[in-house]
UniProtKB/TrEMBL annotation:
Cofactor(s) in the UniProt record: heme
Keyword set includes Nucleotide-binding: no
Protein name per its UniProtKB record: Group II truncated hemoglobin
Keyword terms, alphabetized: Heme, Iron, Metal-binding, Transport
Pfam families cross-referenced by the UniProt entry: Bac_globin
Keyword Aminoacyl-tRNA synthetase: no
Superkingdom as given in the UniProt entry: Bacteria
Alphabetized Gene3D superfamilies for the sequence: Globins
Species lineage: Bacteria, Pseudomonadati, Pseudomonadota, Betaproteobacteria, Burkholderiales
Amino acid sequence: MSDLNDEAATDKPTAFDLVGGEARVRELVDRFYDLMDLEADFAGIRALHPDSLDGSRDKLFWFLCGWLGGPDHYISRFGHPRLRARHLPFAIASSERDQWLRCMAWAMEDIGLAEPLRERLLGSFFETADWMRNRNG
């Protein structure tokens, strides 16, 4: 998994700063789940979620804040994310990985993140999403 926090030890802004802080991370997460709920292309990953996406929205927001180099809201609430272990109950193959990535890429574009930042984040998201696969295909 890529560590986007490497900048933290330097004077360079973190990915969290470049995204625009908590308000923009929340906007990204909300757009991501809105797209997942609305677009038939994402029906496969939508089916892996509960009827209400409220809890999923909060957890992804809390996680992304820390993952991007901002406040560790997720860890303060739940401890280490243990992403792979938490996702093992869900069938995740290449199709689900790719749906998740397309949905996130679309959300990043919709909220107006600059292309170089979108590309950088998508590369890191790919590494994490690919690591989450637990089924062939």
